[in-house]
Amino acid sequence: MDDLELDPAVAIDRLRRLAEQAAIIERPGFDFGHWAGSEKQPDGSITMPYFSFSPEAQALVGAMPVEVFDWRKWSSTEEARSFFADPSTVADASPEQLIKLSTSLVRGDRFDEGALVGAVESGLVAALARRAAVLVRGAG
């Protein structure tokens, strides 16, 4: 599947769990997790570094909708690059754009460990959750 086409009501429904996370991610002291690994083992080997998500981060990532479409292709579009470059642009995103962005972030982290950490630190994930909350509230 090359592109994603969702009925707006279906898209809003898929954003509900993420919308519930908006207040949590913006809470002072929100802990996304920490880097772990790189420890030397008794046999001399070294464990690979990995990101250890906090329980709150696991809930947040689990709430991010993921759909089947060519997310890699979409991630290289001007539309996607504008969101990645300036998280404030997410405030005008459509439900379908939010799902594309969410999918790209979650799937991208599978190939590039720590990509979600960068998206949290840049404010992109908070902007995504905030916009989802606005759209879900508006849908009643």
Describe this structure in words.
The protein is mostly helical and 140 residues long. 56% of the residues lie in helices and 6% in strands. The protein has 8 helices and 2 strands; from the N terminus they run ααββαααααα. The chain has a two-stranded antiparallel sheet. Helix 1 packs across helix 6 (95-111), helix 1 (8-20) packs across helix 8 and helix 6 packs antiparallel against helix 8 (124-139).
Summarize the structure.
With 140 residues, the protein is mainly alpha-helical. The longest helix is centred in the last third of the chain and has 17 residues, at 95-111. Helix content is 56%, strand content 6%.
List keywords for this structure.
140 residues; mainly alpha; two-stranded antiparallel ribbon; 8 helices; 6% strand
Q: Which secondary structure elements does this structure contain, and how are they paired or packed?
A:
Blueprint: H1 8-20, H2 22-25, E1 33-36, E2 50-53, H3 55-63, H4 71-75, H5 78-85, H6 95-111, H7 115-121, H8 124-139
Antiparallel strand pairs: 1-2
Helix pairs in contact: 1-3, 1-6, 1-8, 6-8
Main-sheet strand order equals: 1-2
Q: What level of helicity do the residues show?
A: 55-70%
Q: H/E series, N to C?
A: HHEEHHHHHH
| Total domain modules | 1
User: Mean pLDDT, as a whole number?
Assistant: 93
Q: Approximately how much beta-strand content do the residues carry? A: 5-15%
The quaternary state of the protein chains shown equals single chain
Which structural class is indicated by helix and strand composition? mainly alpha
